[in-house]
Write a structure and sequence with these properties.
By secondary structure, the protein is an alpha+beta fold. Helices cover 51% and strands 13% of the residues. The radius of gyration is 24 Å and the shape is globular. The N and C termini lie far apart (73 Å). The C terminus is likely disordered.
């Protein structure tokens, strides 16, 4: 007797699921970004930004990002013959992403574009890239910032700068003079000190001619397969900044020993390591004994990049939330038509827009460092914006994930990766307390920073009484002294909110600007997303309106 034939059974059909959030163009669809870049002087970047915007929105980029983060770097301390190699092996997707990022000039454009608005234009590329993949942004931004520091030593600049500025990627472990392109990492903190760099114990013994031999341990080395590393060590003259090449000029390995890779919460495509120096050759960068001051100049630029990156990450999270809510239905209506969800989406859009305006106003200040007022503004706004952007991206990512429900919590969702990426920028280059205290140090060292800051608020405050009252209250808060250090985080938050409110008042549509400075004056910014009446009526960008179904007021 023949066995019965089993027929396949269909137990369900796939319905009410959004299509993949791919396609389009992250530059062309972002009216807020394009307006900010043009206003602040970098509109000439449009052809290159348009090409990058298409790449970032493409399924190829999303696939590469997912692969580079799922298949984390692995450490190979020795080759099969037992020779020490200290190599970090990456998934091919990581190398492809690095080639795309460096090939687009993300690391170099601010230095190579001999025209006004170079920092703004490069910031546009950085903003777009961080909508696609964040781990590769770490070596990119360190390479960008290292150029400024290495210019302190003409001999080092001559050997390294052309390779650091090349729009190419060359991962081969060769002496820098033999490479088509080079990257730079950082190795600053030690386990006994962390952010307290003055506690560093690594020793640097002079080898003559500005060279040193290092002995010590570094608790975090970012991007350990870079071609060079800026580091701190104690010379006879005190804590100094040095450059450690991965390969020596004769082609031999510099004894930089990778002890282990950090198993990080996020940022998994990018390796971070603990390393040992054991007679490791290095060259001094900057004045002996002035290592922290030298490296802070680099951190000033990397903190700026973090501000821009967070705005880009907000945009990516918002796009995912809008896309899902435009296609998913519940309780008889699309999510985008539900009043509470419309409130949330509108508030996310406001938060992202304010972050974007602040990032690109800061980029203009970096472009105009020859103007003393702009230099002072960049000095104080960089840590202010870094503090606030890093605090808000965490809440932003969570809320955007919640818009997707359980689908946002699984690793197949881009929001899961964004959520795990969100905290790292608030820790890297100074946690919230460190950054808040840096704002106070800026004010103490250069009191004129505050004049530049309040001058920036003046135009908007003159037209909006609530913002004027907020500025007056902030001045009084800063003038209290005494317990200012204990109040530093609150003061820095108020400074960030005031700056965003002023920028929204000047550059956003009137209904959005009024909402932000009303909430700023009422102390409501920084709380939950969002239950305020009328939030669902706020004007979003054209793409946001189309996706979310939000009508113009």
């Amino acid at each position: 007797m023949d066995a019965p034939t089993l027929q396949p059974r269909i137990t369900h059909e796939v319905a009410n699921q959004p299509p993949p959030c791919t396609g389009g163009n992250a530059w062309a669809s972002d009216a807020v970004l394009r307006a900010a870049v043009a206003r602040e002087g970098g509109g000439w970047i449009e052809p290159r930004a348009h090409a990058l915007g298409e790449l970032v929105a493409d399924e190829r980029m999303q696939r590469l990002a997912a692969q580079a983060n799922r298949y984390a770097p692995e450490l190979r301390t020795h080759d099969p013959s037992g020779r020490r190699i200290d190599a970090v092996e990456y998934h091919p997707a990581y190398h492809e992403l690095m080639g795309l990022a460096l090939g687009a000039g993300l690391h170099s454009l601010a230095w190579t574009a001999a025209r006004e608005g170079a920092f703004v234009a490069r910031a546009a590329l950085n903003y777009l890239w961080n909508q696609g993949e964040n781990g590769t942004a770490c070596p990119v931004t360190m390479t960008f910032a290292a150029v400024h520091v290495l210019r302190k030593e003409p001999a080092l600049a001559q050997a390294w700068e052309a390779r650091l500025l090349a729009e190419a990627y060359d991962p081969r472990p060769l002496p820098v003079v033999e490479k088509r392109a080079a990257t730079v990492g950082m190795a600053m903190t030690e386990k006994q000190g962390g952010s307290d760099l003055r506690a560093n114990a690594t020793r640097a013994e002079s080898a003559g001619g500005g060279a040193y031999l290092l002995t010590g341990h570094k608790w975090f080395c970012s991007a350990p397969m870079s071609d060079g590393f800026l580091t701190l060590a104690r010379t006879e003259g005190g804590l100094s900044c040095l450059l450690v090449p991965r390969s020596l000029d004769d082609g031999t390995r510099n004894p930089l020993l990778i002890q282990r890779l950090k198993d990080k919460l996020g940022n998994r495509s990018n390796a971070s390591a603990e390393i040992e120096y054991d007679g490791t050759w290095a060259r001094r960068v900057g004045e002996e004994g002035r290592g922290i001051a030298t490296i802070i100049e680099m951190a000033h630029l990397t903190r700026f990049d973090i501000v821009v990156a967070n705005a880009g990450m907000m945009r990516a999270a918002l796009a995912q939330a809008l896309h899902h809510c435009a296609h998913r239905s519940a309780f008889g209506r699309r999510l985008a038509e539900q009043p509470l969800m419309r409130n949330v989406l509108a508030d996310l859009a406001l938060e992202w827009e304010a972050a974007t305006l602040l990032a690109f106003r800061l980029a203009r200040a970096f472009d105009r460092q020859a103007d003393e007022r702009e230099r002072l503004l960049a000095r104080i706004v960089t840590p202010v914006a870094k503090y606030w952007a890093c605090k808000r991206i965490n809440a932003f990512a969570v809320e955007a994930m919640e818009c997707l429900g359980g689908s946002g919590y699984v690793e197949e969702s881009a929001l899961a990766r964004l959520y795990r990426e969100a905290p790292v920028n608030g820790i890297w280059e100074g946690s919230g307390n460190v950054i808040s205290l840096d704002v106070l140090r800026s004010i103490e060292k250069e009191p004129a920073c505050l004049d530049a800051f309040f001058d920036e608020l003046a135009e908007a405050a003159a037209a909006e009484p609530r913002l004027a009252r907020l500025a007056d209250a902030l001045k009084a808060e800063l003038a209290e002294g005494g317990t200012l250090e204990a109040r530093a985080r609150r003061v820095v938050e108020e400074m960030a909110v005031a700056m965003q409110a002023a920028l929204m008042a000047r550059h956003a549509a009137p209904c959005r600007g009024r909402r932000v400075h009303r909430d700023a004056a009422g102390g409501r910014l920084g709380r939950l997303f969002r239950h305020a009446p009328g939030a669902h009526r706020l004007r979003l960008s054209a793409r946001s309106r189309a996706a979310a179904g939000v009508k113009e007021p």
